[in-house]
Structures are given as C-alpha cells and as structure tokens.
Amino acid sequence: MNLDGKIAIVTGASRGIGKAMAMGLAAEGAMVVVAARSEESRPMLPGTIHSTVGEIEDAGGKALAVATNVREEDSIRHLVDRTLDEYGGVDILINNAAIGSYTPFLEMSVKEWDLVMSIDLRAPFIACKAVVPIMVEQGGGSIINISSHAANNIFSSTLSADSEEIALIGQNYGAAKVGLERLSWGLAMELGPHNIAVNVLRPLRPVITEGFLAQRPDADVSTWATPNDMVKAAKYLADQDAKGLTGALVTAEELVRRLDL
What we know:
The protein is α/β, with parallel strands linked by helices. The protein is built from 8 helices and 7 strands; from the N terminus they run E-H-E-H-E-H-E-H-E-H-E-H-H-E-H. A 7-stranded parallel sheet has the order 3-2-1-4-5-6-7, with helices on both faces. Strand 5, helix 5 (about 170-190) and strand 6 (about 195-200) form a beta-alpha-beta unit. Helix 7 (about 230-240) packs across helix 8.
C-alpha cells in the first residue's frame, strides 16, 4: 500500500470505526480530513473530531478537523471546499457516517425513516457528487462506502448465540444499506472510465464502538470484533483505482485473511 501524500476524507471519524480508519490511513502517510458533528465529547459518546486529529498528530500524522453535518448538503460541500483549501485535492473518500435502527415497522415514524435514509444513503450520494469531479480532474481516486450485514439479513447479530431474544433490524437501516450497495455497484461502472474505484466494505461481525455500545448497552460483546480488520481492509481499498479492485462488496475479515494483510 502506498498512501503517502494521499488526501482522504473520512466521515463519522470522531469515534468508532471511522476514527480507527482515519488513524490507520494517517499512519500510512495520508493526510486525513476528519469529518463529523462531534466537537464536544458527551458522557455516553466520548470522542470528537478534534481529539481524533490530536491523536493522529501525536503519532506523527497530518489531519484536519472539519465539523460536518452529513444531513445537510451545504455542510458536505463545505467539507470538500475546506479539504481543497487545505490540501488541494481529494484522493480517497470513505463514507462511514451512519445511524442504526431497531424500531419495529409498526412503531416507526416517517421522521425516523427519513433520518436514517438521509444519513446512511443520501449523504454518501451527496459526498460522491462533491468529490467525483475532483477525482475525475485528478485522473483517479478511491471511494469506500461502509455497509453492514443488515443489507441482506433481517435479524441482528448483536445478540449472543444463546440469547432467547430475537431482534429485527430496522427496515429503514437495512433498506438504506441495500441502496448504498446498489449505488456503489453502479458508480463503479460509471466512474471506471475515469479511473475511480468504488467499493463496499462490511464487517463480518458487530464491531465494538462507542456508538454501538450506547445504542445497545446490554449487549454481550464477547464475540464482537475490534475495528482492526476494518482498518486493514480500508487501507487496502484506499490504495485502489479502477485498474485494481473496484465494484466489489468486501467483508473486512475475509479480505484480511485472503490477502494476509
């Protein structure tokens, strides 16, 4: 992998998988733009864009914090403009920001449906619209869209194997992830002639993150994964263009094992 000097935007990077991927890219020499809403830490959700940047810089990397609300198109456009002002380009985009849901259909409001769709599907579309012209002009790039097993499973895997509880994943979350995967597949075909790789990255198992634990504080995390494999897989995919791997739906653990990353 050769990410030295590459410019990467990672959304949802104040904590969790996004933070881990941002730090992983920076460790490989990328200049990372850390995007999220969190500028102040909260008791149940520690971590901010500034603390992520601080840890990257303490480790010798380069990073920029940009407060971003991915529900707002103007905020995403501002994120990309700040990236251009600071670094002059965008080589890598990781659409990681997302919100989950376990609300049953009969209890789900239109507002909750729209909230998940706006963050998990609409925001990646807008982010791609903002960065793709830059990548086209540069002659290539890599887009990584973070999905979930919820795209093709209706039951949650956040429960232990011996649990008697059956948790249905919210229909809004699953539908949004299916849409994101279809969007990625189509973009890979459309953007291939411009040397832009578009891939989908999923974890095989639930990943221990602050957000997940806040959402399911009673979960048995003994079988959950750490973000390590997601970081390794993200670094590999970030180094791709259309001449390499593109249009793929990749499970992090399987990619790491197959390529011995």
